[in-house]
C-alpha cells in the first residue's frame, strides 16, 4: 500500500505523517519514537515486524500497569502513543476487531441535523471542522483521583499497605474519527430491561437522534426487555427522529420493560433472524450480565454484532461510576415524601413519620435523600445493621426524640433490616432478585406497638413513595446525563467497541468493559465520608 494515495494525511507524532488509508488497512505495527522517524516523508509498505518498544514498568509490585514509549498503529488503524497495556488491568474495552477483520472507515458523524432544508437540500453531513470534533483514540480518563496517605484515611481504598497511588486509566467515551460500520448497513436495536427508572426515554431518544446523525435509518425498539426478542405476542417498534422527538416528556419507557426471560441462545437466534448488528441495552446489573452473554454468544457464532450497555439503576448500585441516571431525580423526588412525613409529624402530637425509599441492597437513595432534606432523624440502610428493641435499639432513640423534639422522622431503604423480619419468603422475582420483606410496614408496626405498650400516645404515619419516584420524568441534571450517555453509547458502537458500557467517572465520560462494572453491586461504604456526613446531619447513634 502506497502512502498518501489521494487521502488525507494524519499526524502520527510531532515529526511524522502517515496516510489515513494505510493507517486503516495496515496490521499492527509497533514502532518506537526513534523508529517513527521512518515514517517521515513517504511510508512504503510494512515496517519490519519487530517491536522496538522501550517498556518501562511502573513500580507497583503486582500491578501490571506499564508505560510504553512507543507509537504503534494497531489493526484497527489506530495510531497509539499509549499502547493498550497502559490501561489499568482489565479496563481495555473489547473491540470488534479483536475477533473480526473489519476495516475502519472515516466517520460519518456530524453534529448537525440531517433533516431536509425547506428547499429540499440536505445539510452537509461532513463537518468542515473535523479537527476538534472527535476524541483521540489514546484519550484516557483517570478512574481514581484521590491519593490516600494512609489506609485509615476515610474511605481509603488501598491496594497495598502503603496506599501507593495507582494510575487507573480507562477509555474516554465520545465520537472517533474512524468507524467500523457503514451506516447504510447498520440495523440497530434498543432494549430496556429491569425496573423503570427516570430518564429511560431520554436515553432512547438520544440513541435514536445520534444514530440518525451518523446516517442510520434502520432502528427498532425491542418490546418489554429481553422477552421482546422471542415472545411471539411482542412486536418491535420502529424508531426514528420523528417518533422519539417528544418521548422524554414522559416517564417510563416507550419500549416497555420486563424482568426474567433471559435466554441467551433464544435472544441471539432472534438477533440473527432480525439481522441486528448494533444492540443498545439499557438496564442494571442483571441486564448487563445478559448483555455480556449476548456479546459472547454473537462472537461465538461469528456474528459481527456490537453490544453496548447504558447503565440504568435508580439504586445507583453500579461500580466505578459517579452516579447512574435517574438517581438524582429519585433523591429529588424523595424530598417530597420526606417533607410530607416531616409536616405530618411536626403538626401531630408526638408525630412519627416513616418513609421507605428504594434500594434493594444499596442505601444510596436513602442516604442522599436524608442528607439533602435535613429533616431526617434516623436513616437506615442495608449496609448498616441495626436493632429495633433494647437499650441501644432504634425505638429507644425514637422515644428520646419524641421526648426532646416532639417528633421523629425515619427514612429507611427497602433493603435495610431484612434480618429483623420473621417469615420472609426467600422467594425471588422472575430475574432471580430476592423478594424483600416490607421493612417500612414492619417498622411502622414496631413503633406503634412500642408506644402502645409504654402507654404513650404517638401518631405514626407511613409513606411509601417508591413507585411514584421511579415512574416520574427525569430532572434536568439527569436528562443531561442521559443525553451524554445515550450519545456516547452510539459513538462506542460505531467505533467498534462491544461488551462495554458507558458511564461518568470523575465528571468525565468513559467506556468500561461490562465485567468490571457488574462484578458485584456497589454499596454505601459505612466508613465513607458521605455516610459520616449523613450521620452528622441526622444525629443518630449506632443502633447496635
Ligand atoms: N446473570 C444474568 N445473565 C443473563 N441475564 C440476566 C442475568 N441476571 C439477570 N438477567 C436478565 O436481565 C434482565 C434484567 O435483570 P433484572 O430484572 O435483575 O434487572 P436489572 O438489570 O438488574 O435492573 P434493576 O436495577 O431494575 O434490578 C432480565 O430479563 C433478567 O432475566
Ligand atoms: O417491583 P419491581 O419492578 O421488581 O422493582 C423493585 C426494584 O426495582 C429497583 O428500583 C431497581 O430497579 C429496586 O430498588 C427495587 O427493589
Ligand atoms: Mg437486578
Automatic annotation (TrEMBL):
The record marks 286 as: Important for substrate specificity. Mg(2+) binds at residue 285. GO terms for biological process: fructose 6-phosphate metabolic process. The keyword Nucleus does not apply. Residues 188-492 form the Phosphofructokinase domain. ATP binds at residues 195, 259-260, 284-287. Keywords: Allosteric enzyme, ATP-binding, Cytoplasm, Glycolysis, Kinase, Magnesium, Metal-binding, Nucleotide-binding, Transferase. SUPFAM superfamilies: Phosphofructokinase. The active site is at 315 (proton acceptor). It comes from the Eukaryota. GO terms for molecular function: 6-phosphofructokinase activity; ATP binding; metal ion binding. The keyword Secreted does not apply. Homotetramer. Catalyzes the phosphorylation of D-fructose 6-phosphate to fructose 1,6-bisphosphate by ATP, the first committing step of glycolysis. This is ATP-dependent 6-phosphofructokinase. It comes from Physcomitrium patens. The lineage of its organism: Eukaryota, Viridiplantae, Streptophyta, Embryophyta, Bryophyta. The gene is LOC112273596.
Amino acid at each position: 500500500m502506497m502512502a498518501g494515495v489521494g487521502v488525507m494525511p494524519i499526524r502520527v507524532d510531532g515529526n511524522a505523517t502517515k496516510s489515513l488509508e494505510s493507517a486503516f488497512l495496515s496490521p499492527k505495527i509497533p514502532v518506537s519514537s526513534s523508529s517513527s522517524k521512518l515514517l517521515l516523508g513517504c511510508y512504503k509498505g510494512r515496517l519490519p515486524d519487530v517491536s522496538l518498544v522501550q517498556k518501562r514498568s511502573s513500580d507497583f509490585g503486582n500491578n501490571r500497569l506499564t508505560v510504553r514509549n512507543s507509537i504503534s498503529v494497531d489493526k484497527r488503524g489506530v495510531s497509539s502513543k499509549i499502547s493498550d497495556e497502559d490501561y489499568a488491568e482489565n479496563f481495555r474495552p473489547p473491540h470488534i476487531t479483536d475477533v473480526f477483520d473489519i476495516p475502519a472507515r472515516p466517520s460519518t458523524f456530524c453534529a448537525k441535523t440531517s433533516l431536509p432544508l425547506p428547499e429540499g437540500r440536505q445539510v452537509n453531513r461532513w463537518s468542515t471542522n473535523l479537527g476538534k470534533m472527535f476524541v483521540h483514540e489514546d484519550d484516557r480518563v483517570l478512574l481514581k483521583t484521590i491519593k490516600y496517605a494512609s489506609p485509615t484515611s476515610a474511605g481509603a481504598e488501598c491496594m497495598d499497605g502503603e496506599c501507593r497511588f495507582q494510575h487507573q486509566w480507562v477509555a474516554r467515551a465520545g465520537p472517533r474519527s474512524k468507524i467500523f460500520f457503514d451506516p447504510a448497513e447498520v440495523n440497530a436495536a434498543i432494549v430496556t430491561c429491569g425496573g423503570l427508572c427516570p430518564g429511560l426515554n431520554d436515553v432512547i431518544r438520544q440513541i435514536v437522534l445520534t444514530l440518525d446523525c451518523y446516517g442510520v435509518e434502520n432502528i427498532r425498539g425491542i418490546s418489554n426487555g429481553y422477552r421482546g426478542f422471542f415472545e411471539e405476542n411482542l412486536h418491535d417498534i420502529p424508531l426514528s427522529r420523528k417518533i422519539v422527538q417528544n418521548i422524554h416528556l414522559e416517564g417510563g419507557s416507550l419500549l416497555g420493560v420486563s424482568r426474567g426471560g433471559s435466554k441467551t441462545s433464544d435472544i441471539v437466534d432472534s438477533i440473527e433472524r432480525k439481522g441486528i448488528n448494533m444492540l443498545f441495552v439499557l438496564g442494571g446489573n442483571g441486564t448487563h450480565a445478559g448483555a455480556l452473554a449476548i456479546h459472547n454468544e454473537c462472537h461465538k457464532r461469528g456474528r459481527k454484532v456490537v453490544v453496548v450497555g447504558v447503565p440504568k439503576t435508580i439504586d445507583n448500585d453500579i461500580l466505578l461510576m459517579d452516579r447512574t441516571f435517574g438517581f438524582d431525580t429519585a433523591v429529588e423526588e424523595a424530598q417530597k415524601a420526606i417533607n410530607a412525613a416531616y409536616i405530618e409529624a411536626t403538626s401531630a402530637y408526638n408525630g412519627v413519620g416513616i418513609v421507605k425509599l428504594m434500594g434493594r441492597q444499596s442505601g444510596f437513595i436513602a442516604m442522599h435523600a436524608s442528607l439533602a432534606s435535613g429533616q431526617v432523624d434516623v436513616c437506615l440502610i442495608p449496609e448498616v445493621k441495626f436493632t429495633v428493641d433494647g437499650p441501644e435499639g432504634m425505638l429507644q432513640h425514637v422515644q428520646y426524640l419524641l421526648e426532646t423534639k416532639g417528633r421523629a422522622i425515619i427514612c429507611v431503604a427497602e433493603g435495610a433490616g431484612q434480618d429483623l423480619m420473621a417469615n420472609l419468603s426467600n422467594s425471588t422475582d422472575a430475574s432471580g432478585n430476592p423478594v424483600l420483606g416490607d421493612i417500612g410496614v414492619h417498622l411502622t408496626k414496631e413503633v406503634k406497638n412500642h408506644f402502645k405498650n409504654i402507654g404513650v400516645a404517638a401518631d405514626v404515619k407511613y409513606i411509601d413513595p417508591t413507585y411514584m419516584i421511579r415512574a416520574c420524568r427525569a430532572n434536568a441534571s439527569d436528562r443531561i446525563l442521559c443525553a451524554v450517555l445515550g450519545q456516547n453509547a452510539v459513538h462506542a458502537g460505531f467505533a467498534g467497541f462491544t461488551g462495554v458500557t458507558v458511564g461518568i467517572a470523575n465528571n468525565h465520560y468513559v467506556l468500561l468493559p461490562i465485567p468490571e462494572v457488574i462484578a458485584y453491586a456497589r454499596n454505601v461504604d459505612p466508613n465513607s465520608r458521605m455516610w459520616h456526613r449523613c450521620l452528622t446531619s441526622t444525629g443518630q447513634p449506632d443502633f447496635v
